[in-house]
Specification:
Blueprint (H helix, E strand, L loop, with lengths): L1 E2 L4 E3 L2 E8 L2 E6 L1 E6 L2 E6 L6 E2 L4 H8 L8
Antiparallel strand pairs: 1-6, 2-3, 3-4, 3-7, 5-6
């Protein structure tokens, strides 16, 4: 279960930013139930993986090679 805001939409897919040592990667996930600002992750993550929940939009933008800052 993650904060709902940790899940991003990219090309119609639900993705999260996962931290591996000094690297960040986008990971597609399958969502389950959403309630009270939290979302259930049914597939795409393994137990113990670190999901970035703050600053993840900026990291995802860099990973996707975008240069716009959204403002």
């Amino acid at each position: 279960i993650l904060p709902e805001g940790a899940v991003l939409r990219e090309n119609g897919k639900s993705v999260v930013v996962v931290q591996h040592a000094d690297e960040y990667r986008l990971r597609e996930v399958q969502l389950g139930m959403v309630a009270d600002g939290r979302v259930e992750i049914l597939a795409g993550l393994s137990f113990g993986e670190r999901v970035v929940t703050s600053g993840h939009y900026q990291i995802a933008t860099q990973l996707l090679g975008r240069t716009d800052s959204g403002g």
